[in-house]
Structure formats: C-alpha cells, structure tokens
Amino acid sequence: MFNPSLWRFRRYSNAMPELLNLQREMNRLFSSVGQKSPEDYPAINILEKDGAAVVTAELPGIDPEKIDVSVSGEILTIAGSTLQETFAQGETYLRQERGLGNFKRNIQLPFQVNSQAVEARYEKGILMITLPRIKENLPKKIKIK
Amino acid sequence: MVEKDMQKMENVSATERVRNVKTFVPRVDIFENKDSLFLVADMPGVDEKTVDIELEKNVLTINGRVENGRIKDATMMYSEYEIGDYERVFTLSDEIDRDKIVATVRNGVLRLELPKAEKVKPKKIAIKAV
Q1: Do B6 and A41 touch (CB under 8 A)?
Q2: pLDDT tens by residue, A49-60
Q3: What is the fold, at CATH topology level, of the domain defined by A38-136?
Q4: Which of A56, A70, A94, B38 is the most buried (most CB within 10 A)?
Q5: Among candidates B33, B42, B82 on the partner chain, residue whose Cβ is nearest the Cβ of A91
Q6: SS3 content of chain A, % helix, strand, coil (to 5)
Q7: Closest Cβ–Cβ partner in B6, B74, B109 for A60
Q8: What confidence score (pLDDT) does residue A13 get?
C-alpha cells in the first residue's frame, strides 16, 4: 500500500524504525483491521558495504536447509517455513505466540545483483545475505583533464 | 496473525537498566505434557553463552543479551527491526523440579524443559469396585 521507497530514509537511519512503526500503525488503521500480511515477514534491515547490499533478517528456529533465498535481477526473494511442534495426543498449546507457517517476501533492490557472488549465512537465528552489484553497473569515476 | 504481532515488541519495564540498549519481549510458546512444562522462546541473536535463566520460587526470568551485531564499515540504508536484549518474566503455577531443568539454544530459539515435581504430578486414582 503506502510502502516507503527503500532508499529514501538513508540520512535518518536512526529514526527509521520509529517512523516505519508509525507508518505501519497508520496503515493498519486505514486498511482492514486484523488482516494477515505475511508478505511483511520477516522484518529486514539493509546495509551497504563496499558497493554491496547486506540484507539481514531475524528468522529464529528455522532449519537452514529450508530457507530459500533466490535472486533474479534486482529482486531478492526469501521464503521458507517455520518448524511445527509435534504433539502427542491430548497435548495442546497453553500459549502460542510463535510460528507463522510459511512465509515469502520479495525485496526490490536498487541495482542489478551479481547472482553468482551472492552469499547467505544463517547464524543464531539471523539470516545475512550479501548481494554484490554487477561490476558493469558500478559507478565509474571520470577523470577531469 | 495481525501485522502488529509479527513485529518485535519492546519491553517497557519500570526498572531502569544498566546497559544502554533496548529490550524486547521474546515471543514464546508454552505447552505441557504430564511430566513437564515446555517453554520455547524466539530470541534471534542469542546463543548459549548469552542467555540467563533464573527460577526463584515460582518466578521464571529469561534474559538474553545480544552482542551488537553491527557490521563494520557498513551504513544502514533501511531498517525495519531493531537489535536489543530480551527479557521476560513468567509466574509458574506448578511446582517445578528445579534440579532437572534442561535448557538448550539452537538457531536463536531457547527451549526450556521444566519437569514437574513428583508431588504435583497428577496421580490417577483407582476406583475400587465395592
């Protein structure tokens, strides 16, 4: 709906979570209340380092084999499913706050990604994907004579 | 699940903290069988060295410290979540056998097995036919 452009907040990165929270709340007020929006899961942070984008996401308790990260052009897709608890007969949750089942999220990056050099790491429940830019697309420095 | 539930919830406690970081309330699942109570908490960024569990009388406190996950020389461009510690307090109703508590942390998920004490385990009472 009123999604912010990914790169607009660059200068005020400290205030971003607050602003986005506010925006989410506003969106929630005006859109149908209580509607599921699995496309917003997982929450991501994007950093820039040496011309590469580093996307991090908090995905606790997921089998690394079952996280599906794919890149095509400038779209990054993170998909997977959370582990389900198996119960013996007659047992149920006393409280359930975790677990979402399947999720899939597409993230648009502002540049074409060199898909050969993408690296993904999963550690302590945090997924970190490094996405380098295609060499030909890197800004070229022009010498002034 | 509503959108709000998918975001991390900040812990707004009355007590001031020493470490200058935000704390969050980890999401938990609780379930039980006849022998034990299980508690599973989502705490991304926490490993076995940085989690503290305390049981005092029947108050269970979970504490997770998250080391600053900042990447060197990187600039933040877009952010949807914040990094911080975890804290949550539970009051347990059953008596727990505190010597047999088992805790594991894997992929940022804390799993606690709290065995019930012998005396509170449900006993089946046989009814004698007269």
Answers
A1: yes
A2: 888 889 999 888
A3: Immunoglobulin-like (2.60.40)
A4: A56
A5: B33
A6: 20, 35, 45
A7: B109
A8: 64
**Rounded Cα gap, residues B101 and B40, in angstroms:** 13
> Is B3 strand, coil or helix?
helix
Q: Count H helices and E strands in chain B, helices first.
A: 0, 10
A-chain CB neighbours of B81 within 8 Å are: 17, 43-45, 58
- Amino acid, res. A61: G
A91-140 per-position pLDDT tens digit: 778 888 887 678 888 888 888 888 888 999 998 889 999 999 887 777 77
- B125 token code pair: 């009472």
* First-last CA distance in chain B: 54
130 residues of chain B, pLDDT tens digit each: 444 455 677 777 656 677 777 888 999 999 888 888 889 999 998 888 889 998 888 888 999 988 766 677 788 888 888 888 899 999 887 678 888 889 999 889 999 998 888 776 667 778 888 7
| Cβ separation A60–B42 shorter than 8 A | yes
For B61, other C-beta atoms within 10 Å of its C-beta total 13
Residue of chain A whose Cα is closest to the Cα of B43: A60
Residue B127 located in a structural domain = no
Q: B90: domain range?
A: 2-71+78-120
Q: Which residues of chain A does B42 touch, with a Cβ-Cβ cutoff of 8 Å?
A: 60-61, 98, 125
Is B53 inside any structural domain? yes
Q: How many domains does chain B have?
A: 1
